[in-house]
Amino acid sequence: MGLIPSGGGRFEVCLDEIPVFEKSKLGRHAQPGEVLTLLRAARGA
């Protein structure tokens, strides 16, 4: 996992190139702790 610069207000989080959170699709920012919860779920923890 790493940071990839972007523009246009995009915020996307991927794990092994699989999208976990995409602001552009949800139309909102992540809630506190949401991304961490999604990452843990995606890796089966």
Describe, in plain words, how this protein is organized in 3D.
The protein has a domain of 31 residues. The mean pLDDT is 89. The chain is globular and about 30 Å long. The chain has 45 residues and is α+β, with helices and mostly antiparallel strands. The protein is 29% helix and 20% strand. Strand 1 and strand 2 form a beta hairpin. The longest helix has 9 residues.
Task: Detail the topology: elements first, then pairings.
Layout: E1 12-15, E2 18-22, H1 23-26, H2 34-42
Antiparallel strand pairs: 1-2
Please give a quick description of this structure.
Helix content is 29%, strand content 20%.
Keywords:
single chain, 45 residues, alpha+beta, two-stranded antiparallel sheet, 2 strands, 29% helix, globular
What is the CA-based Rg, rounded? 11 Å
The helix-strand sequence is EEHH
Query: CA-to-CA gap between the ends?
Result: 16 Å
Strand content: 15-25%
Structural class given helices, strands, pairing? alpha+beta
Spatial shape: globular
Main β-sheet, in a few words?
2 strands, antiparallel
Number of strands: 2
Cross-sheet strand order for the largest sheet: 1-2
